[in-house]
Write a structure and sequence with these properties.
The protein is mostly helical. It is 31% helix and 7% strand. α2 crosses α3.
């Protein structure tokens, strides 16, 4: 026997190359811009449906969050408004302007305006009062005075200075 190795030749079959699916020749993109070497399908959408460079896929963006009622109320009440005070114009929060208006009406003798301010002060309290103390941190004398004042406001008709008082009608006999 001889020590020679047999000369075996392996033939490889060559596949026929299709130009549309990856042939040897580079081909130009189709008129719609799609690369013919990559078939349209999963993870390869047609070029005409893909987002253009520099263009967002969500042009209007996410819708804004709706504001809560308390947020809108805070924005309205604390919006700066211009008022004239003592001949000078200045900017204050709308809530401050409303309170100043109520005070001015109460000072003119409007019992309802005074009652509103009084009730608001009773509800909110003053910064000096500690809420954990009974009576809002007021002494018994202050509490009695405030109760008497509230009773007076509810019972007495208030007249504005300078206005004529209505004449009382004489009883019919």
């Amino acid at each position: 026997m001889s020590n020679k190795t047999p000369n075996i030749r392996i033939r490889r079959r060559e596949r026929p190359q299709d130009n549309a699916v990856g042939g040897a020749e580079p081909s130009a993109p189709t008129p719609d811009g799609h690369d013919p070497h990559r078939p349209v399908g999963y993870a390869n959408p047609p070029k005409r449906t893909q987002f253009k460079k520099g263009q967002s896929g969500n042009p209007r963006g996410r819708p804004r969050r709706k504001k809560a009622l308390s947020t809108m109320l805070d924005e309205i009440l604390y919006k700066q408004v211009e008022i004239t005070e003592g001949g000078r114009r200045r900017k204050v929060a709308a809530v401050e302007a409303l309170l100043k208006r109520q005070l001015a009406e109460a000072m003119k003798g409007d019992a309802k305006a005074f009652d509103r301010l009084f009730k608001l002060q009773q509800t909110v309290g003053s910064p000096d009062n500690e809420p954990d103390q009974e009576g809002g941190g007021r002494s018994p004398a202050e509490q009695a005075m405030l109760a008497e004042l509230a009773e007076w406001v509810q019972s007495e008709p208030v007249t504005v200075l300078g206005e004529a008082e209505p004449a009382e009608e004489a009883p019919d006999d």
